[in-house]
């Protein structure tokens, strides 16, 4: 990109991706990339239309980092831009320092974003960073859609990450700063080959250029762009091929047609469910096992819990959860009215007059909807649905509930060893309208979602 075009590029990018007057947080290390982005925002008048608040995270890896943070604060404040600095504690033993530091930076950005009432985080990743990310993912054996690298706009938890420089090479940013005599820090950790990213930049990429005999960065970036196009296409195919129901803390998917889905498309579906709920910790083996169960090879139920999230799969059904569901324990309800908590649900009941029950899809319960059943006015148990209890439904109706993986986590009502209400199938025992009954109401307990 021609250097004189960089300011116009950043201005157009900001106007196209961030609403006017929305506060933005700039992640600022003081190095080449973030210094260039700071001045590009300032010179393009983006600061006027998009108020910028600079956040610097001092990792404490070097003795002089505290003095550098103070110098950066003076530099940013001289431009009339607010500045906040965080100093991180020591990395806990056993943690990967780069991954841990990345999570800590995001937590710092989130803190300031909450105080400003915004979700926009500006990051100074540029094209050379993108090439390194894509190459690393290739060596890690990432799926084809993951070769896209970083997105220019990406939603992570409650934050929106904006990368205005992702199409610009680092050399162009360096020239931009030198031509205008703009200062920047030279962090020695950027060339410390004990860190993987520095090792790629200082050793691996130069070796490959010398051995391969030509510049290959542009080829990597072209693969990243084509991978992004492939990911977009497959998301469209998933929308056509699967019925997907999203809630703030859960997502469910079933095939739209009779034919079993292609495993490749099912893997893309899992990626979609994971990303929509910020579940990034499931292993490749777990995802493959879930896809096999979803495609019916082999049949059966697979449940995986990693961190605070969960991934369930069975033939023709996927479920993903941001927070773990608690299993149901058998609970006796022998009072005329009461309230209790079973698993992840609150259940209340009282004497009432039977009315026509409202038909409600069980997936709506995960969006906070209430479900009310009308059952005979006798003591009852709240318990998981079993195959034996399911036979009750088949003896009264043609319903044939096929969701098995959720049965231990959604309570049903049982009287005298007979199923009288089951949310997964929508079945309730038939009662004469106007007769005395119990009205049993269930709602999902609220959970606190993590970034």
List key phrases describing it:
single chain, alpha+beta, five-stranded antiparallel beta sheet, 12 helices, 22% strand, elongated
Can you give a write-up of this model?
- The protein is α+β, with helices and mostly antiparallel strands.
- The protein has three domains: 3-125 and 163-213, HUPs (Rossmann fold, 3-Layer(aba) Sandwich); 226-321, no CATH class; 331-444, no CATH class.
- Helices cover 36% and strands 22% of the residues.
- It has helices spanning 6-17, 32-43, 46-49, 65-77, 97-116, 127-139, 170-179, 196-212, 217-241, 263-276, 284-294, 387-396, and strands spanning 24-27, 52-58, 83-87, 120-122, 153-156, 159-162, 242-247, 250-255, 302-306, 309-314, 317-321, 331-333, 338-342, 345-353, 371-375, 380-383, 412-415, 418-422, 427-428, 436-444.
- A six-stranded mixed β-sheet has the order 3-2-1-4-6-5, sandwiched between helices. Strands 7-8-11-10-9 form a five-stranded antiparallel β-sheet.
């Amino acid at each position: 990109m021609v250097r004189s075009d960089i300011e116009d590029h950043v201005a157009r990018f900001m106007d196209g991706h961030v609403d006017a007057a929305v506060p933005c947080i700039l992640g600022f290390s003081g190095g080449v990339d973030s210094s260039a982005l700071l001045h590009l925002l300032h010179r393009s008048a983006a600061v006027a239309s998009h108020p910028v608040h600079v956040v610097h995270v001092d990792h404490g890896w070097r003795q002089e980092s505290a003095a550098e943070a103070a110098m950066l604060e003076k530099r940013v404040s001289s431009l009339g831009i607010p500045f906040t600095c965080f100093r991180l504690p020591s990395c806990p033993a056993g943690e990967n320092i780069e991954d841990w530091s990345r999570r800590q930076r995001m937590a710092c950005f989130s803190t300031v974003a909450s105080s400003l009432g915004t979700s926009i985080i500006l990051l100074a990743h540029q094209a050379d960073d993108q090439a390194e990310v894509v190459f690393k993912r290739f060596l890690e054996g990432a799926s084809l859609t993951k070769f896209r690298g970083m997105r220019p706009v990406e939603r992570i938890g409650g934050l929106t990450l904006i990368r205005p420089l992702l199409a610009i090479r680092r050399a162009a940013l360096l020239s931009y700063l030198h031509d205008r005599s703009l200062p920047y820090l030279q962090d020695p950790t950027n060339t410390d080959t004990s860190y993987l990213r520095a090792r790629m930049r200082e050793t691996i990429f130069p070796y490959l250029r010398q051995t391969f005999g030509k510049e290959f960065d542009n080829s990597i970036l072209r693969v990243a762009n084509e991978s992004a196009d492939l990911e977009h296409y497959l998301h469209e195919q998933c929308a056509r091929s699967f019925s997907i129901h999203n809630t703030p803390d859960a997502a469910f998917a079933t095939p739209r047609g009779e034919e079993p889905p292609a495993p490749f498309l099912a893997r893309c579906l899992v990626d979609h469910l994971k990303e929509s709920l910020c579940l990034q910790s499931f292993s490749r083996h777990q995802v493959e096992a879930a896809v096999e169960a979803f495609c019916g090879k082999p049949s059966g139920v697979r449940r995986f819990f990693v961190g605070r999230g969960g991934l369930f799969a069975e033939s023709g059904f996927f479920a993903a959860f941001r927070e773990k569901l608690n299993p149901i324990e058998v609970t006796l309800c022998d009072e005329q009215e009461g309230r209790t908590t079973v698993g992840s649900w609150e259940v209340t009941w009282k004497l009432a007059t039977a009315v026509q029950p409202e038909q409600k899809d069980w997936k709506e319960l995960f969006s906070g909807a209430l479900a009310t059943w009308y059952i005979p006015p006798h003591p009852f148990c709240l318990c998981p649905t079993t195959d034996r209890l399911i036979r009750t439904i088949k003896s009264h109706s043609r319903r044939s509930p096929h969701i098995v993986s959720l049965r231990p986590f959604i309570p049903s009502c049982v009287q005298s060893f007979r199923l009288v209400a089951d949310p997964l199938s929508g079945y309730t025992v038939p009662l004469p309208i106007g007769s005395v009954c119990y009205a049993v109401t269930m709602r999902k307990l609220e959970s606190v979602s993590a970034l």
